[in-house]
Amino acid sequence: MTGSSYLATEGTEILYGEQKVIEQVLQFVSKTTTKINACVDRTRPLLAIEIESLKKCFIDAKKREVRLNYVTEITDENISYCKELMGFITELRHLDGIKGNFYISDTEYIAPAIFHEKGKPASQMIRSNVKEIVEHQQYVFDTLWSKAISAELKIREIEEGLAHYESRIIENQDEIIKEISRLTADSNKLYTCVSAGGMQYSYNYFFELNKKLVDKQKKGEHEGIRFISNINKYNVALARILLDAGIQIRHVKNMPPMSFGVSDKEAAATIEKMEGGKKVQSLLISNEPMYVTHFTTIFEELWKDGVDAADRIKNIEEGVESTNIEIIENPRESLKLASNMVKSAREEVLRIYPSINAFRRQVKIGAMNLFKEITEHNVKVRIIIPSDERQIREIVDEVSFALPQLDIRCIDKSLETHIGIIVVDKKESLIVESKDDTKDNYYEAAGLSAYSNSKPIALSYASIFESLWKQGELYEQSKVYNRMQKEFIDVAAHELRTPIQPIISLTEVLHSKIEDIQQKELLDIVIRNAKRLRRLVEDILDVTKIESNSLNLKKEQFNLNEVILNTIKDIKASKEFQYSAKIIKILYEPQQYDSIYVEADKGRISQVIFNLISNSIKFTKDGDIHITISVIEREQAGYNKNNNIRQHVVVSVRDTGEGIDPEIMPRLFQKFASKSFQGTGLGLYLSKNIVESHGGSIWAENNADGKGATFSFSLPVTNT
Predict the structure, then answer these.
(1) What's the whole-number mean pLDDT along residues 513-521?
(2) Exposed, middle or buried, 11 (CB in 10 Å: 0-12/13-18/19+)?
(3) Is the pTM of the predicted complex or chain greater than 0.90?
(4) Which of 116, 131, 655, 718 is the most buried (most CB within 10 A)?
(5) Average of pLDDT values for 432-436?
(6) 555-716 classified as CATH 1.20.120.10
(7) How far apart are CA 79 and CA 475, in angstroms?
(8) Class for domain 12-160, per CATH?
């Protein structure tokens, strides 16, 4: 279809002629009320400045508080136009080599179909309001936007000649070779750490280039090449070739899990093994200083503990093998080795237990006595155990009482693993697999073990330990704070609860005995606010019960329709509703579902319905609140699929209010998730926990017509 009129229905069309294209862009910008996302090549900012009507349209849109996001390629040629453009849009970002040209709003997408020449308006334009097309192009824009950098930074780079830091993932094999060659040629020093296969890869594609760097080193123009790899009998000949070429090489048996190269300016890394010199499929390359420093530090640590290639080659040729790692299959042997390691400690033993059960097993076989022996010789012992307080407090207290020299710290139980770690003097380490944590016997529970006297590996595990140790400290602090907070809230809620009911009762008695209308109105205010305070206290106490797993349900069979009708009747009868300035209708017509029975806590389900309707009233100025009920199959019943009952009943509360704020939506059913000054944000949190404790689900969404929101919950049906 063709033309220039606004699309009345969903569809896609093509416009012809420069004038119609410009008119369409103006119309698109003028009618948009929320946001416009623009993606254009480097010639398009010129048009936004030089076409006066388009420039004015953008300025007017900004005045209307329309958010204008614009991504383009900023260059020396268009920098002045981009600077001016920044004055009348919301945000401009730069992306190298961008080719896209399109605009997108919440409901419409427009893009040139054909160009006359760069810097000139298009002669044909596609426009569409098809939902799928708009969503797809929005995804494309979001992807480009996330990769782009701020215009201010790019302009500063151009004008001040600053370096542009970036990290990229390259997945083209030839491009990877090209980039590694460039990194190598531009280097003043070059460190390379690769697997055995990586050594062959480096020789296949970069050997001649490396020889040139060695020649530059001889002339004092380069600091040289250092090479780390695992030299074995299969690649010893290749290692000799590199060594003879003037490349410095050291052997490391336990190589890191990735291969990398780092110069004074850039770093490149891959996790691929490159077996047989196979080409790299994916490469991370970065000139960001933190990456360069990180990989340089790793290399220098490995280099420091590496074996000179000449010595390694000699050992291989003479049949002498050095070993610094050992896999132990027998749990008795690994236990013996662990004992010897601990006894040999001179400064410190770091121990991470995978679980509380693993710690109990160690206590049972006497490991604490071993720790006691070494602490008497001033060896420091620190222990980390993932566990919750209820599980561990008694046993930790017993151990701490008997061995006060031990420093034991708990971390969050969610950090339980299947691996235990021992690090001695940050020089050697032992990793013990927990094969079956349910076993009481250590030998039945333990699996494989791995011993290493590699200092870099021990330091790595020590670093992990220190991170967990600090986390444990924060965990303990947060537990104390949470406990104090819960105790305070619980006490405060109970203290408030005691005087509230007498206030309400006595005020109502007083209200019934006086006749003065103004005095009655004042007492109404007291009663209304006292009841609000009572609801708040009850909500706080319910939250405390939920978080302490003490929310008891008194289940019975009842007709859900009757509960809904009674709840609506109570709300309508309340003075808050009757004396409200709002004009709101609560509509509910069960029709075909006269009797829907559920087995649940009647009071709690009534509380959920009350909360949802009250929530809708709060956010609806004037309008209707529709309550509907339906019976559906289990697979359709929200998000909880764990209940085996085939049919579920769904209760929905639909309003015509202001809808759910996008900022609140992701945490809607969490505690205190509210932007309203009228509520605490506890009602939906309580409703979610009540519904889920019944095997149901609760969810919410903004209405498709843009007016209000719908809250729904499902419950298993007993009999329909």
Answers:
(1) 81
(2) exposed
(3) no
(4) 655
(5) 88
(6) no
(7) 51
(8) alpha beta
